[in-house]
User: Which sequence fits this backbone?
């Protein structure tokens, strides 16, 4: 079992990767990432700092690899929900969803431990995202 700090760090790396997934980081996404890093005392972490300050771009493949590393082959529901919630917050921080961001969210459905079919996974994720967007 990973320590809480390491889990937070992994999640922040995924968020940074998700912000880069459409090729650039929006101002609102940058602010969201900075706030998240400060909240978890990770802004000065040697691994996070260059990513957070956009000194190093993150390729989509790296983001997906971090997701796989974070969730593993049999994720628990709590980790999955934390990831969906964090990524959704980032994606909706700028008020728009790029195609690449939608693809990332769709790909996360395969990790949902509560879902039984691909269609159910898609419907559940779309419903959750719509509700969050409608309530924001």
Assistant:
């Amino acid at each position: 079992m990973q320590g809480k700090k390491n889990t937070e760090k992994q999640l922040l790396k995924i968020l940074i990767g998700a912000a880069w997934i459409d090729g650039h980081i929006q101002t609102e996404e940058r602010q969201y990432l900075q706030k998240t890093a400060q909240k978890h005392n990770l802004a000065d972490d040697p691994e996070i700092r260059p990513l957070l300050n956009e000194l190093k771009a993150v390729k989509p493949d790296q983001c997906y690899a971090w997701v796989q590393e974070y969730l593993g082959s049999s994720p628990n529901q709590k980790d999955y929900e934390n990831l969906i919630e964090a990524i959704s917050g980032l994606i909706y921080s700028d008020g728009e969803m790029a195609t690449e961001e939608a693809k990332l969210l769709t790909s996360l459905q395969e990790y949902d431990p509560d879902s039984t079919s691909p269609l159910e996974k898609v419907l559940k994720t779309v419903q959750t995202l719509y509700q969050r967007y409608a309530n924001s």
